[in-house]
Amino acid sequence: MPIELLADLQSLDLSRVIVTHEEFYSRLQHRGTFAVIDGVLYHDPEKSIIVGYKDITPDQWWCADHIPGRPIFPGVLMVEASAQLGTYEFYERRPETRNVFLGFTGINHTRFRAVVEPTCRLTFVGNLCRVRSNLFTYRSQAFVDKNLVFEGEVTGMVIG
């Protein structure tokens, strides 16, 4: 069965950053090595689609140890980046939640489809698929060039 893509990246203008790293993390509480997303390239609130990116370079903190001699971007960081992208989109969708903490509560239907190695741009697509008053789920996909390397669902909730 063919994989349903969340967005046609070829049809979107991804040539400019619309939300910088600094702007992104002015809304999220992550810092340092856990500020995984480099910026947002596209956001369509009506279609509940957001596209962010992470530039993978050989000088990043995880490269020396995962895996020595052949750095592979950790899958758990792809999941974390997806959760952060969804959290940002949820804050944009629900401005009244911007001063509360949103916690990561679950992962479903997750697959890693290819190895991600430096140097490349890892492009994440998030799509809101379920929302309740305090709980939300985003379907996520990540691509290197046109190749799907990750897909899954991340769930979060308003913690307070």
Describe this structure in words.
The protein has 2 helices and 7 strands; from the N terminus they run βαββαββββ. By secondary structure, the protein is an alpha+beta fold. It has a 7-stranded antiparallel sheet. The protein is globular. The N and C termini lie far apart (41 Å). The mean pLDDT is 95.
In short:
This protein has 2 helices and 7 strands; from the N terminus they run βαββαββββ. The protein is an alpha+beta fold and 160 residues long.
Write the layout of secondary structure elements.
Elements: E1 19-20, H1 21-25, E2 39-44, E3 49-56, H2 75-93, E4 102-112, E5 120-131, E6 135-144, E7 147-158
Antiparallel strand pairs: 1-2, 2-3, 3-5, 4-7, 5-6, 6-7
- Oligomeric assembly: single chain
Spans of at least 5 consecutive residues whose pLDDT stays below 50 are none
What percent of the residues sit in helical stretches (DSSP H or I)? 10-25%
- Number of helical segments? 2
Taken from the alpha-carbon principal axes, the silhouette is: globular
Q: Strand arrangement, largest sheet?
A: 1-2-3-5-6-7-4
**Major sheet:** 7 strands, antiparallel
Q: Separation of termini?
A: 41 Å
Structural class: alpha+beta
Strand content: 35-45%
State the order of secondary-structure elements, H for helix, E for strand: EHEEHEEEE
> What is the gyration radius calculated from CA atoms?
15 Å
Mean pLDDT: 95
- DSSP, total strands: 7
How would you describe this structure in keywords?
single chain, 160 residues, alpha+beta, seven-stranded antiparallel sheet, globular
